[in-house]
Amino acid sequence: MGIEIERKFLLRGDGWRREADEGTDFRQFYLAVRDGLSVRVRIKDEAKALLTVKNGIGMRRGEYEYEIPLADARELEAAHLGEVVAKRRFRVPLGDLTVEVDVFSGALAPLVLAEIELPDEDHPFERPDWLGEEVSEDGRYTNASLALHGRPGPG
Amino acid sequence: MGIEIERKFLLRGDGWRREADEGTDFRQFYLAVRDGLSVRVRIKDEAKALLTVKNGIGMRRGEYEYEIPLADARELEAAHLGEVVAKRRFRVPLGDLTVEVDVFSGALAPLVLAEIELPDEDHPFERPDWLGEEVSEDGRYTNASLALHGRPGPG
Question: Which residues 75-104 in chain A show a CB within 8 A of chain B?
Answer without folding.
Answer: 75-76, 78-79, 81
